[in-house]
Design brief:
By secondary structure, the protein is α/β, with parallel strands linked by helices. It is 27% helix and 16% strand. It folds into two domains: 51 residues, no CATH class; 337 residues, no CATH class. Keywords: Membrane, Signal-anchor, Transmembrane, Transmembrane helix.
């Protein structure tokens, strides 16, 4: 059969004269054409639907870990109750050991943070240690910063079979009263350090010939003298804020340019101190080496009074569910965020570690009246620090996630 004959089969007069097997073939051909037309119609949907998530040309939006909700832990976790460590961790202050100090409920441990639209990477202590080999992780700030430091120590130590090999370089015990602690992980040649500097800037005597009522000044334009120890660190986590209020600065005056300014307010002084921090970071830290985080303000949860006027939190057993009862964002955060934005193009590894919103829910996570042995019976409740294990573990999970997004690894 030549080409003309084949073509002629398509004409109407010959349609019913074709053989049976050719009729069947044409039927399947027509079906194929219809199916192909359907695929063409739905292909755009497939292309921009689930397949788009695998496209290398589609930009990946960085997850906002600060926005989400607390959900109950499942029992599928490989660790007990989903926790990363237990209260027996030897790096915990006695004041943060909730069960040892008499707290009976454990429901506050059964929650994990679930960001909106993404997941927190599972914390991998072995990976974190390996990425930090021959490095330094340094926490600088107040006692809430120490809370986070102890949490990370316990989280990382879970990857060390013989935890007794981890030691404090200067032989100091774990106690709240030491201003500087440096814990060494010998296998990784890594130190994880805590430096207590509540204001970040210098607290000292006033200039000569100052009025007699001025005994102490906060030098907003002079960075803390300990800062020379922090140069060369691979990860630095700063925090401040809890001491920057009217109560904690009673009797203190603010000093700038070696002159006391008796009219400078607390938040104005706070802003100036952050400028001093910014200047130090940009001048003294290597932008190719140091990963710098400034953690946001950690909320307090005193109810029916302030910390020194009968404020309580011991009746809280679960996270807050009524957002109307949550406090607005601390004004300190606005100052911190603004300064970090100013640094973005000169030091790309400076990040805002925003934990305020997720922490505001957790009114149930404080030591409250369950204080360490020896605390006076009439001592105020502690509704600012955190029980461990507890909320600061989530801060460190976010810290780890942020470092992963920055391809962190010591050189």
């Amino acid at each position: 059969m030549d080409h003309h004959q084949v073509f002629s089969l398509c004409s109407f007069p010959y349609l019913f004269k074709i053989k049976k097997h050719l009729y069947v073939s044409l039927f399947f051909l027509l079906t194929l054409l219809i199916f192909s037309s359907f695929i063409v119609d739905v292909l755009p949907f497939l292309r921009f639907g689930w397949l788009s998530s695998f496209s290398s040309s589609t930009p990946t939006k960085e997850c906002d870990y600060s926005n989400g909700r607390w959900v109950r832990r499942t029992t599928s976790s490989s660790s007990v109750n989903g926790l990363l460590y237990g209260e027996e961790c030897r790096f915990l202050d006695s004041g943060f050991r909730w069960r040892k100090n008499g707290r009976k409920d454990s429901g506050y441990l059964q929650w994990r943070w679930q960001p909106h639209g993404c997941d927190l990477p599972r914390f991998n202590a072995s990976d974190f240690l390996e990425r930090s080999r021959n490095g330094r992780i340094v926490f600088v700030g107040d006692s809430i910063g120490r809370n986070q430091w102890e949490s990370l120590m316990c989280m990382l130590s879970q990857a060390i079979p013989n935890k007794s090999e981890i030691y404090e370089e200067n032989g100091n015990p774990i106690t709240k009263h030491k201003g500087f602690l440096s814990m060494r992980f010998p296998q990784q040649n890594l130190t994880v350090e805590y430096h207590r500097t509540p204001f970040l800037v210098v607290i000292g005597r006033p200039p000569d010939k100052s009025p007699k009522e001025i005994k102490t000044t906060v030098r907003v334009d002079e960075f803390n003298w300990q800062s020379k120890r922090w140069v060369g660190s691979d990860v630095l986590v700063f925090n401040t804020g809890h001491w920057w209020n009217e109560e904690k600065t009673v009797g203190c005056y603010f000093e700038e340019g070696r002159k006391v300014n008796k009219t400078m307010g607390v938040m104005e002084a706070f802003g100036k101190s952050l400028k001093t921090w910014k200047s130090w970071v940009l001048k003294r830290l290597d932008p190719h080496k140091s990963h710098v985080f400034f953690r946001s303000y950690s909320p307090v949860h005193y109810r029916n009074g302030t910390w020194n006027l009968g404020g309580l939190c011991d009746a809280e057993m679960e996270p807050e569910t009524d957002k109307r009862r949550m406090e607005p964002d601390a004004s300190h955060n606005e100052y911190i965020y603004k300064v970090i934005e100013e640094m973005r193009y000169r030091h790309s590894k400076v990040k805002f570690l925003n934990i305020t919103y997720l922490t505001e829910f957790r009114k149930d996570g404080h030591p409250s009246r369950y204080r360490e042995k020896g605390t006076p019976v009439d001592a105020p409740q502690d509704c600012s620090h955190w029980c461990l294990p507890g909320v600061p573990d989530t801060w460190n999970e976010i810290l780890y996630a942020q470092l992963l997004s920055m391809n962190y690894r010591t050189k």
